[in-house]
Structures are given as C-alpha cells and as structure tokens.
Write a structure and sequence with these properties.
This protein is an alpha/beta fold and 604 residues long. The chain contains 16 helices and 30 strands. The protein is globular.
C-alpha cells in the first residue's frame, strides 16, 4: 500500500505500527470498508498505552518468549508469611487504631475500581448501582460516598477528600449519568474524577502480531486488566496533584466490597503505626479457596532476585509450597485456616513511594500474558491473547527497602457481590462464602448487629435460616445504620444506651443528620425506620420507648423481566407494609411519627 493513502492525523500511528512489525494490519487496504474506524482504533490504543504500540509489542514479545520457554516467575523464591498488623475488633486498642486512621483521612485519596457491568450476576447495569439491601435500597456508590463525606466532616478537612473512579467503555457513560442524576450523592463535581480505561490489542502469535476481527476488519481488542488504574492515576496527573496537596496515602477499593468501609480506618491506622509502604486488607482463608494470598517471597541467594512481598494467586501458592517446602498449603488450628492470609484486593499505599514507582516505569504497570496454546510446540494460540495487569502487582516496582504488609480482619467482614446466585449457592454447598447479593446483604446487616452488641446493646439473633434461590441466609434482625449515625464504633457507642432488639426486628437509621441523634432505653419488636434530615441542627434524643408492630418481612419475587434486577438476583424483596413505625426528624429536630405508634410515641 502507499503510505500517502493514510490521512495525515493517522500517519504517526501507521508508522509506529510498521516499526512494531504490524504491516499485516494493512493487507488488502485498498478494499477495506472500515478504514477510518480502524485507524481511530489504532490511534486510541497507541495513545492509551505508555510508549504506544511499539512498547506494547516489545513488552509482549518478552512475556510471550518467557511463556513459551515455560519460565516460572516464582522460580527462585520461597514463600513466607509477611509482616502484618491486626484490625480485629476484639483488640483492646481497636478504637485507638481507628482513631489513628481517622486522623489520616484528610491526607488520603480514594480510588474506586468500577469497570465492570453486573451481567455475570444477572444484573445488566453498572455494579455500583446495585442496592446493597432491600430496606434502604441504597446503592454501593452512594454508600461509599456517604462514608467518605462523613469522615471528611468529622475530621474537619480543609479540602474535600478526593475520589477517583476507574470506568470502562461499558460503564463510563452510565456511571457519569448516575452520579449526575443524584448530584454526586453530596460530593462536589471537582471532588470526583472519572478515569476511563481503554483496551489493548489482542495478539495472534509469539511475534505479538495484532489480531483483526474477520467479521468487520476492525482491530480485536480486550481489557488490559484492573492494573490499568495505576497507569490512569499516573497519566492523568492525579498522583502528583494529590501529592502536591499534601496527601500521603492512596486507597484502592473494589466496586461491590461494601464491608471495606469498616476496614478503611483500621487499615490506615495500622499503616501509620507499622510504617507500611503498602498495606493490604486480608481475611483468614482456607487452603484451596479461590483467593490470592499476601506472601513474602524470599529470594534464593543464587537467584539474582530480591525479596518481594506481593499477592500470589491461589493456584500458584500450593505448587510453590510443594516445590520449595515440600508440603501443600495446609490449614492450621481448630478452624483450619492457612497461615497465608487471604487478599481481598483492597489496599492503601504511601503516595510518595507510589509516585516514584510510577515515574520509574513511566506509568507502565507490571504485566503478564496467559496464552492458551494450540499444541505442545507452544507456537500457536487457540484464540488471541493479550497483555494483562493486576492492581495488586504494583509492589514489583517498589524499592527493596519498602515495607509491604497486611492487616487481618474477621472473615465475615468480606463478602463482595461477585457471583451469580446459582454460583453462590454452589460455592456455599462447597463450604465457601457464596459472594452473592443476598448473602452480602445479610453480612452488611450482621456487621451493624455485631457493632451494636459491642456497644452493649441486646440484640437477639436466633438460629433460624432462610433459603433464597438455593442460598441459605440466617434470619434474625436486620440493622442498617447510616454513616452519619455510626461512622466509627466509638461514636456509635456514644449514641446508644440500653437498646433491645428482637430477632424478628428491622432497625434502619437513614439521612445525613444522624450525628444529632441518640437512642436511649429503646425496646424494639418489629420495624423502626428513623430518617434524620441532612440539615438537622439540633440534638435529638429518642428515649424510653417500647415499639411493637408486625413489621416488614422478606417475601419472594417472581423471576420475571418486570422484577427489578436488584431484587431478581436475590430472589426476594422486603415487603414494606403499613404495620411499621417510621420517625422523621426535620432540620429543626422536630419529630413526625407515622405508621404504628406506641403510647410513648403518640406524645412526641
């Protein structure tokens, strides 16, 4: 073909492709009907990858060569349990750790990885829009923002705490629209930054030749992986901007891991106390569970490698232990947990070290390739592959002196919505967490039940269970407390006194004015909903109340397109009858009661 046939705005990417050995992309150019669209694709992937297509091909060839040779990236390492701290709520100084973490909020930036739709869950919209529970019907993103805003408020931040959200082609427009339609759930427009992830070319052979879709003649591209979040934070200038504004920490979290909001503060507190460069949230894990583990990889003296603390995937850890220590990943103690903690892929990093690490790599994050070979020659692929990256691999770029560790939490403080309900039921039958919406809702409520108990409330739980679409969920009370009412356990303790809740009850406190509310000597047997206006200025004490009503209950929903997807993936909804007590507190602290009133409530 004649290079002059290429429009001037695409001439540079054309030349870079030729330099990278991609001349096959222009075979039959004269008869191509999608020329401009194809060139736009090439330009987009070229500009979206640090170093462009030339560097992408160079990196791909190195990784493909190592893969063909059967090189093991863990060769020369011996795994050990790394240094770690504890965020267990049973610690005598837990509230002190949380307070230390809270003090770091003004110096922290948050990054939410939200590039996926919920199609695998049976939910066709963006995952951050899924309602966490069926009583408040609050979405994941609203909850995350509410916690950040409340922490910002009680620490008197002189500047808004920043939140960056990584989206994708699939989620970007819907995320922006959802935020705009809800006024960013209280955040200022400048407080939120949207970072859209691009895609990378698929590869057809060990020479890293790009794949073309025979159906339309366009470039075949695939997601690069959630590790792209680091490149986007770097290339957007956010990392340096936050550093210049005095931020010291950057915290990465996942789209449907709502319980991480009760691990953020202790994780920050442990990071400060332990001097961690990177601190990953972890939970106890059982051998064989599909969860990576934070490991200290000790380099053999003759390997030429350096010690590295990093996530090791579950399917790599067991073979590594067998080959180096002569035994599998095995459980210890009465509960049979592995000594290697389970990584939940939510972590905090020292911002100065993070910036220097990304500068050193020009924003390129650690990558890997996982081709499916057609035969033993390892020369051809069954289907096109691509370079991938994982956000938890960033320690590979940290200096050897970096202190990388973990903070362990209770196992029940982790249940992201990542599985379809049928898959969750199968996992539960196999003794694993189901990781589906119904069970996540239960654990979110259970967290508040446990917090109230830790604040000396009497909460009856019971042993009854329910089954929804094959997933067994404990019955018992459902409790949901707004971040304004319960931003930390210590603050919650100051707000409740002599609280008694029956096992069939639901207690829900909503609204941004919960900081003005206190509950004293409340006996609840039924449903109590308290809504506190965001602008409530006066202290309100509800005390000496006995509330009894039939209350709300969970009922099945039809598996029908007419059923809202957030309910259909659970198999139930909460039926909100009139036989409940609803208390609304306005901006002046005045109280309005509707529904079932007790004798005491009638006089309010």
């Amino acid at each position: 073909m004649n290079p002059s046939d290429i429009p001037s705005e695409y001439r540079d990417v054309f030349e870079r492709c030729m330099e990278a050995g991609q001349s096959h992309l222009f075979d039959g150019w004269e008869t191509r009907t999608t020329k401009i669209e194809f060139l736009k694709q090439l330009k987009e992937v070229h500009e979206g990858y640090p170093g462009g297509v030339v560097r992408y091909v160079e990196n791909a060839k190195k990784l493909l060569s190592a893969s063909k040779a059967g090189e093991n990236p863990l060769e020369g390492y011996q795994p050990e349990v790394p240094a770690g701290g504890s965020g267990l709520r049973s610690l005598p100084d837990f509230d002190g750790i949380v307070k230390d973490g809270l003090n770091e909020i003004p110096k922290t930036a948050f990054v939410l990885v939200a590039g996926g739709l919920g199609e695998r869950l049976g939910y066709s919209d963006i995952k951050i829009k899924i309602p966490i529970d069926t009583i408040t019907e609050t979405s994941f993103i609203e909850t995350y923002i509410s916690y950040i805003l409340q922490w910002q408020k009680i620490t008197n931040c002189d500047k808004p705490v920043p939140l960056a959200i990584m989206t994708s082609d699939d989620t970007n427009d819907k995320t922006v629209q959802f935020l705009e339609a809800n006024n960013n759930f209280g955040m200022t427009p400048s407080q939120i930054t949207i970072l859209k992830q691009g895609k990378v070319p698929s590869l057809i052979d060990n020479d890293a030749k790009f794949a073309v879709d025979p159906a339309d003649g366009l470039l075949l591209t695939k997601p690069h992986g959630h590790g792209d979040v680091h490149q986007l934070v770097y290339s957007s200038g956010l990392a340096e901007k936050w550093l210049s504004e005095g931020k010291k920490h950057i915290l990465f979290f996942q789209d449907t891991h709502v319980l991480c909001m009760w691990k953020v503060l202790p994780t920050l507190g442990v990071s400060v106390r332990e001097g961690f460069t990177m601190n990953s949230m972890t939970i106890p894990r059982k051998p064989g569970e599909a969860s990576g583990s934070v490991c200290l990889l000790k380099a053999n003296p003759d390997s030429g490698k350096q010690d590295l603390t990093i996530n090791v995937e579950y399917n790599q850890l067991d073979p590594l232990l067998r080959s180096t220590l002569g035994h599998p990943d095995k459980g210890e103690g009465d509960e049979g947990y592995s000594p290697f903690p389970g990584n939940v892929n939510t972590f905090v990093i020292s911002l100065p070290v993070y910036c220097n690490a990304l500068k050193s790599s020009d924003g390129v994050v650690p990558e890997f390739v996982n081709p499916k070979y057609a035969d033993s020659s390892r020369s051809t692929f069954k289907s096109p592959t691509r370079l991938e990256c994982m956000m938890q691999d960033i320690p590979k770029f940290f200096p050897p002196t970096s202190r990388v560790g973990f903070t362990k939490f209770e196992r029940h403080l982790y249940c992201p919505v990542k599985n379809a309900t049928a898959d969750g039921a199968a996992k539960q039958k196999g003794g694993q967490m189901p990781g589906c919406a119904s069970y996540a809702e239960y654990l979110w409520s259970s967290n508040f039940v446990n917090l109230l108990k830790e604040c000396d409330a009497s909460v009856e739980v019971g042993e009854e269970t329910e089954e929804w679409l094959g997933v067994t969920v404990p019955s018992g009370p459902r409790v949901f407390l707004s971040p304004s009412f319960a931003p930390t356990r210590e603050i919650l303790r100051s707000k409740v006194c002599e609280l008694k809740i029956s096992k069939r009850s639901q207690l829900c406190i909503r609204g941004g004015g919960g900081g003005k509310l206190k509950l004293k000597n409340i006996k609840l047997d039924g449903t109590l909903i308290i809504e506190v206006d965001d602008s409530c200025q006066n202290d309100v004490v509800l005390e000496n109340l006995t509330i009894t009503n039939l209350g709300w209950k969970r009922v099945p929903v039809p598996d029908s397109p007419d059923t809202p997807a957030g309910l259909r993936i659970r198999g139930y909804t909460t039926e909100k009858s009139d036989d409940a007590t609803i208390i609304k507190i306005n901006s002046s602290g005045n109280i309005h009661v509707s529904g079932v009133k007790s004798e005491q409530l009638s006089s309010l």
